[in-house]
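Exercise 7b. Backbone tokens:
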């Protein structure tokens, strides 16, 4: 998208010094790690210049944000606003599991929690959402008929509302089908693979 300056923080568990190193790398700002004030100032100047030239804020995406130390989260809060907190220089998207909500209830993080404008708490995926995801993945792979409609429904029913579980089940079936040189995956394969797995677990229990 034109004029959109977005970056992703991929090592959220960094300490404060490494956080600044990564932020400089993400937004193309060079500074000495020993000069934290210089990095603070340079990043804010970069974001302010972008805001003035494009009328849109730079965006930072943080995955697994529940792993961020409280000190780094607070530094991010201070870094992203100016003019006595009346102007936001950076749009921030914090993505994490339920531990993130719990962490934001800490007393030292209440100022950050109060500044979050939108909180989207996702629930377990519905059967229709899982079905749409799996259908999209099969189409993207170039073989919409790789799985029978019955198998698709079965996988959606046993994925426990979790996209990762859905993909893991599909990957196990695909591995078994590749070994047997099957052209299509069906419910018979599902029963053979996962009944065998369940039997092995009972033997070692």
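Sequence design result:
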């Amino acid at each position: 998208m034109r004029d959109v300056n977005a970056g992703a923080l991929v090592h959220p568990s960094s300490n404060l010094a490494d956080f600044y190193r990564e932020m400089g790398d993400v937004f193309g700002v060079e500074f000495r790690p020993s000069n934290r004030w210089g990095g603070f100032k340079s990043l804010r100047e970069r974001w302010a210049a972008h805001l003035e030239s494009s009328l849109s804020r730079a965006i930072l995406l943080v995955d697994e944000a529940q792993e961020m130390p409280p000190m780094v989260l607070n530094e991010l809060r201070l870094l992203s606003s100016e003019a006595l907190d009346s102007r936001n220089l950076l749009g921030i998207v914090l993505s994490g599991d339920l531990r993130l909500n719990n962490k934001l209830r800490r007393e030292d993080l209440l100022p950050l929690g109060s500044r979050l404008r939108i909180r989207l708490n996702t629930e377990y995926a519905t059967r229709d959402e899982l079905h749409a995801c799996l259908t999209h993945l099969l189409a993207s792979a170039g073989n919409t008929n790789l799985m029978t409609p019955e198998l698709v429904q079965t996988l959606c029913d046993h994925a426990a509302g979790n996209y990762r579980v859905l993909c893991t089940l599909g990957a196990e079936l695909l591995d078994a089908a590749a070994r047997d040189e099957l052209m299509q995956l069906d419910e018979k394969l599902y029963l053979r693979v996962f009944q065998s797995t369940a039997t092995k677990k009972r033997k070692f229990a």
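Instructor comment: The two ends are 54 Å apart (CA to CA). The chain has a mean pLDDT of 89.
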